[in-house]
Amino acid sequence: MLQLNYKSGVPICDQIVNGFIRMKALGLSKGGDQLPSVRALAVELCVNPNTIQKAYQMLESAGVIYSVKGKGSFFSDDAAADIAVIKAAKKDFRAAVQSALELGMTESELKKIIAEVCGKEEAHND
Amino acid sequence: MLQLNYKSGVPICDQIVNGFIRMKALGLSKGGDQLPSVRALAVELCVNPNTIQKAYQMLESAGVIYSVKGKGSFFSDDAAADIAVIKAAKKDFRAAVQSALELGMTESELKKIIAEVCGKEEAHND
Amino acid sequence: MLQLNYKSGVPICDQIVNGFIRMKALGLSKGGDQLPSVRALAVELCVNPNTIQKAYQMLESAGVIYSVKGKGSFFSDDAAADIAVIKAAKKDFRAAVQSALELGMTESELKKIIAEVCGKEEAHND
Amino acid sequence: MLQLNYKSGVPICDQIVNGFIRMKALGLSKGGDQLPSVRALAVELCVNPNTIQKAYQMLESAGVIYSVKGKGSFFSDDAAADIAVIKAAKKDFRAAVQSALELGMTESELKKIIAEVCGKEEAHND
DNA sequence: GTGGTCTAGACCACG
DNA sequence: GTGGTCTAGACCACA
Lengths: 126, 126, 126, 126
Hints:
The structure is a homotetramer of 126-residue chains. With 126 residues, chain A is mainly alpha-helical. The first copy, chain A, contains 5 helices and 2 strands.
């Protein structure tokens, strides 16, 4: 379901958050779909339940999911959620651009890379 | 000399490292040029000397600069180091582009963000 | 009979309790009127019977209803219970007003919100 | 500095969050002011550091404060933060109105209570 | 069974 | 010293 990289330095809870956001963005999950329970996912990913809990709370405060005590957690079908997701993605990409610029890359180089990656995506869907 | 953003969340240490890499990449500094002393730069940037020291160590282990006891720190002539740094930056940015695309952002949106960030960079450096 | 909002975050149990208190307060039900059976209401509201059972127990311990083994549950004639409930509600709301004022909201803003919520109540009950 | 009620049932971390929001709203703290460290506040309030940490993260994600590793946490001077705070206060008050209505109180009763509380505030600043 | 909060104690990165 | 993440295990409210 979710692939974690325990060595990457990226916080596990962030990886979980991004994973579910991606699932929603890619259409693999829709509004109303139930997420695995905190405890179940903790077992599946070999992670502490608190870590999952934190991830779910981040997702909820971002409007991507909503949780009901005693019932479970569900993907939100609120359009605002998708907007929040896009905003988060923009923020991440903006940070990437900034750090690339800090390392001396130019605007045109960055655009060239984007074009390359987009080309690959279309061509052999790498 | 270097512009720091204390609120951006990017570690001061990394900002300093990136700043010197950028100076080299942009041709503002060449192999053999001397860097400011740890103490002087600490005063100039209002930063703890330990932070500068750590940045210089990171730069040295990356091969971008070299230090001589009792003399100071100097930009390295080693072109390979520069190339490695740039290649790493490209790889990071390429990954960022790909994950942005996965989250549903379009090529034109990405280019728009780049333009925005480039504009901001010039305008305000908080 | 009762309108439940499963996403509001307000416990189903409390919504049921409040619903019956409201029915009594609004005069839709009078002392001696029989409440639906636990099982029937559970089916009607698509809710776990345990949840209904708990709500009825809360209502009984608050003196709003009384239960007779083998017969069912009935609204109490005890006016004191109703008064206590209303006084508690007033106290809670008074506290909410005070904390809203402390956070800088004005009297007119609060009244505006009330008008909004009253409007919504009539329109959609999700 | 902050008064906690350990018996109220209101989560401690929420009380801390509201306390700092109130300090900002009341003008007791301004943008740039430093908050007590996680550990120090934990000792002062006799609470686990994780609880403070959680509260600070909630405040940060709400834009009320910002935190810098190794430096500390500071009140944000971002105007958007104040807006977010007001929105949160509105949401809370809206919930209070809704639950009051559920208990049978009428629109005019609620407005009457508001007027009463506002009157007290002005008169003897209770 | 579910989610939510809290404690206790550890480790890391940063300054 | 600072904030940030994670683990382990407990307790509560809700269904």
